[in-house]
Design goal:
Helix content: 40-55%
Shape: elongated
Strand content: 5-15%
CATH class of one domain: Alpha Beta
Number of helices: 21
CATH superfamily of one domain: P-loop containing nucleotide triphosphate hydrolases
Number of strands: 16
Radius of gyration: 64 Å
């Protein structure tokens, strides 16, 4: 526990309201009145620096050379030539912002700048060739500053040749030209600056013309390169196609692949013809077999004469006709002469002779039919053999045709590519004379009448506020380093311009009424502006205020230094129910948190003003922790504006005194002592009960908040006596006003 000042060491004047001096930790502040007095005291210095700045600006404006600027306007033409663009090699330019920016980069590139240098012979112009120009005052100053640069001390000095000199001319020209777009259009303004008005317009026009011609050159170059590539590619494809055709013919000869027409093989035609003949031979064989079988059946059945119905035989037909005639005669003779008549016998003899002849003819026809069957079968077998051989040849050739088709596909692909390249070559040839640029000059640069720079009046006008700012800065620096810079101010010896605020102001001597000497508990400090609860935010919103410094000093004074170790447990109480007590409690916790300490504030007051000041959402609190409903880490609420933690009391039992006197309360204080660095307990007012006295016994120090006008009132004495009787922690008083 920090030792409090004994009341015997305090003089009466220190606690008299009118004679109270600011605490020693209150720093001197710099107000607007002090700044005005500083400007008045240092007006001579400020005016001198202002005059020097204006003179330097005037000299600079006179030394800088006069330059002229002229501009040419180029538009990116999105229109296409329907004749020539059908076979264009390059795609047309886009009109989007990115494409326009790309064209600006081309305009300001070294390539176009080099073209302009060659066309205008700027390497012979002293303005662009530093080697031919006479050194000016600006150049001499620049050389002097370059000599002060340590990087130039160790650089290798190489002789200037033609290439390096030309590069310097190109670099200089790039600094004199620029390009920019006009709004959202596709027009580009090409500007150039020079010391001569006519030269500025000439450079702008030349650069614009070089840009337009560079587009045509780019198209011609691309077309030429494409044509050359197409020619080389056509030669390669021609040779490749010739080799593939030779390989196809060689392959056909090796595998005897002959076609009567494209895609129509001779073997396939032969196989189709033989197949048709086989079908016909099978039909003939079936027919012959049918005839032969029918003849055999008729012969076997004893009706050989019916063969005439199957086989067309005129002889059998004639014999059958004769046989019919003999049968008629036999019937008539048998009726007329009887069976033994010689004439009847002759007729029967003729009948037998006819039957024999018919039998002979049928046998001949049967033999002929059998021969026809044999011939038809032999012919069918021959055709089937030929068909089998042809099919084998076809299978062999089909296997070979697979490879042939692959070779022909490659040749066809090569031929297609060759024809496409030939067509593209015909389109791209002879286009060099009809190439149209994709941009055109819509406004040439004119000779400027008035110079573009330097803006001498603007330089002089800007030097005035700049000189004032430099003068004020110089005055502040001189005032800050006053003890190290002995000088005179306005003819008088230097003195401190801003009086120290911490020094108590002495008033004119006037009779004072006697004041009472304080003989109560030690006074820890005096704090202003704590009448309202919003004063708890001053520590965060105004960290440099006297209030914040006073709170910080009070935290250091209340730090734990006793044998208990751990955090400092500070109990804060008051004799009234005002907001000053809670505002100081929250300020102490926040100030300790800003010092890097883990600060916890416990709101035990019935008014719960601490919870209202911190504005942290609390659903559980001290009562829930002591009853074991929730653990301590869940009951702590973090300050939304800092790193302070709040343990509130949303639930307050009727017998709150019993809760504060319980062993769980003592264990909780021990836990807080071991887990935090600074603990503040708002005990509430002493006059409203014994809660504050009970809680104060658990703390390391008790702070009694009192207004200055109530310091000698009986209420303070009664509160101090009540805390002392309750054996509270050592007591100290904080005065508010």
């Amino acid at each position: 526990m920090s030792p409090y000042r004994p009341h015997t060491s305090l003089s009466p004047a220190q606690y008299v309201p009118r004679g109270f001096a600011p605490p020693p930790y209150a720093p001197a502040t710099f107000q607007m009145a002090d700044f005005i007095r500083l400007l008045d005291a240092r007006r001579t210095l400020i005016l001198k620096i202002l005059l020097a700045t204006v003179l330097c600006a005037l000299a600079t404006a006179l030394v800088l050379p006069t330059t002229y600027s002229s501009s040419a306007v180029v538009i990116l033409d999105p229109r296409k030539n329907n004749v020539t663009d059908l076979s264009a090699v390059l795609t047309p330019l886009g009109n989007d912002p990115a494409a326009v920016q790309n064209q600006i980069q081309i305009i300001t590139s070294r390539g176009l700048a080099s073209t302009v240098v060659d066309r205008l012979k700027l390497y012979d112009d002293p303005e662009f060739n530093p080697g031919l120009a006479q050194p000016s005052l600006v150049d001499l100053v620049g050389e002097m500053f370059s000599l002060l640069n340590p990087k130039n001390w160790f650089e290798n000095i190489t002789p200037t040749n033609g290439t390096l000199s030309r590069d310097r001319v190109v670099d200089t020209l790039q600094k004199h030209v620029w390009a920019d777009t006009q709004g959202l259009s596709t027009t580009i303004t090409i500007s150039a600056s020079s010391r001569e008005a006519g030269k500025a317009a000439l450079i702008a026009n030349t650069l614009a013309d070089a840009y337009v011609k560079s587009q045509v050159a780019a198209k011609v170059g691309a077309t030429t390169a494409t044509t050359d590539w197409l020619n080389r590619r056509l030669q390669d494809l021609s040779q490749q196609l010739q080799i593939q055709q030779e390989a196809i013919q060689r392959y056909k000869a090796e595998h005897n692949l002959n076609d009567s027409a494209p895609g129509n093989s001779i073997v396939d035609q032969q196989m189709v013809g033989i197949s048709a003949q086989v079908v016909a031979a099978r039909s003939v064989l079936a027919e012959k077999n049918a005839i032969n079988d029918r003849i055999g059946q008729l012969v076997s059945s004893g009706n050989p004469a019916d063969v005439a119905q199957i086989v067309s035989s005129p002889l059998i037909v004639g014999l059958r006709t004769q046989q019919a005639t003999l049968l008629a005669q036999e019937s008539e003779a048998n009726t007329k002469y009887g069976p033994l008549h010689p004439k009847l016998q002759i007729i029967q003899e003729q009948k037998r002779d006819l039957s024999f002849k018919i039998t002979q003819e049928v046998n001949r026809l049967a033999a002929s039919a059998a021969n026809d069957v044999l011939v038809a079968r032999a012919q069918l077998n021959s055709l089937q053999g030929s068909l089998g051989g042809t099919e084998g040849t076809a299978r062999t050739q089909n296997m070979a045709r697979v490879q042939l088709q692959a070779m022909e596909s490659n040749a066809t692909s090569t031929r297609t590519m060759y024809e496409a390249f030939v067509q593209r070559l015909r389109q791209s040839q002879n286009l060099d004379d009809v190439q149209v640029p994709e941009s055109r000059i819509i406004s040439s640069a004119s000779v400027p009448r008035a110079p573009a720079g330097p803006k001498r009046m603007l330089i002089l006008g800007a030097s005035l506020p700049l000189g004032l700012i430099l003068g004020v800065l110089a005055a502040l620096i001189v005032e800050k380093l006053g003890p190290l810079m002995p000088m005179r101010v306005n003819g008088a010896r230097r003195a401190t311009i801003v009086p120290p605020i911490a020094r108590p102001m002495r008033r004119a001597a006037k009779p004072r009424s006697p004041v009472a000497v304080w003989s109560g508990p030690p006074i820890l400090g005096e704090i202003n502006d704590t009448a309202q609860l919003r004063a708890a935010d001053f520590v965060l919103d105004y960290p440099a205020s006297r209030y914040s410094h006073a709170i910080a000093a009070l935290v250091r004074q209340l730090e734990a230094k006793d044998s208990k170790g751990g955090a400092a447990i500070v109990a804060i109480t008051s004799v009234d129910a005002g907001e000053s007590r809670s505002a100081i409690a929250v300020s102490l916790a926040r100030a300790a948190s800003k010092m890097g300490k883990k600060a916890i504030i416990v709101d035990c007051a019935p008014q719960r003003l601490v919870s209202k000041a911190i504005k942290a959402p609390t659903k559980t609190g001290l009562y829930d922790v002591l009853t074991g409903a929730v653990p301590l880490n869940q009951a702590l609420a973090k300050d939304p504006r800092g790193e302070t933690y709040l343990l509130a009391t949303p639930k307050r039992p009727k017998n709150a005194v019993t809760m504060f006197q319980s062993r769980p309360m003592e264990r909780l204080v021990s836990v807080l002592r071991g887990g935090a660095d600074f603990v503040v307990i708002d005990c509430g007012p002493v006059s409203r009960g014994s809660d504050a006295a009970v809680i104060a016994r658990l703390a390391d120090a008790t702070v009694l908040v009192s207004k200055r006008q109530a310091l000698h009132s009986p209420l303070i004495a009664q509160a101090a006596r009540a805390l002392e009787n309750a054996k509270a922690a050592p007591l100290g008083i904080v005065i508010t006003k």
